[in-house]
Amino acid sequence: MKNSHCSRRKGNFTVEFAIVGVFFSLLLVFSGDIIIKLSIKGKLERLSYSIVNIVKERTQLFGEDEYSVDDTEAENAYTITVASLKRTMSSFDESKFGFVLDAYTRSDYGTGDKIDSIVSGSGSWVHEGSNISCQSTKPDKDLIFQTSWGRSATFYQVTLCYASPNWFGSIIGGDYSKISVRSAAVGR
């Protein structure tokens, strides 16, 4: 009689441990996934802030009167970004990386209703890897103002995207891999 009672307890313990083990495993996978994503997001945020300021300050540093951003400058910003990510992320894959550079001014010397892109080409300089789509948005017109010199301030924006590992999403059937950050700066 005593042995059958002990074997039932062992069976109950095994079932309870299996249920708790599944939830504990999901918690570990979720925590690991969040930690990786936060690490990548922090690196992307710092880098996007640095790159937008490099693009913004080029006019001050090099004495240019032209505030538009040409393909060479955008390509240089992209090259700096990729080189930095390769140094800081050991598993960086360029095919999972997206980069968008925008620069805008406001019509009528900063007082009009129209926002014009000053990036040569299609309005945004975009470089996307084969495994990600990265998009930016136009700023609100109130963020672009008239400077004390009577011209429109230039609004610079850098958007970085990266497809991170999708551990938790692959378990529950969702896609939580895309990390996107955006930094903006107002130039002279």
TrEMBL record:
Organism from which the protein derives: Vibrio porteresiae DSM 19223
Its taxonomic placement starts with:
Bacteria, Pseudomonadati, Pseudomonadota, Gammaproteobacteria, Vibrionales
UniProt-listed Pfam families: TadF
Q: For this UniProt entry, which segments traverse the membrane?
A: 17-36
Assigned keywords, A-Z:
Membrane, Transmembrane, Transmembrane helix
Q: What is this protein called?
A: Tight adherence pilus pseudopilin TadF
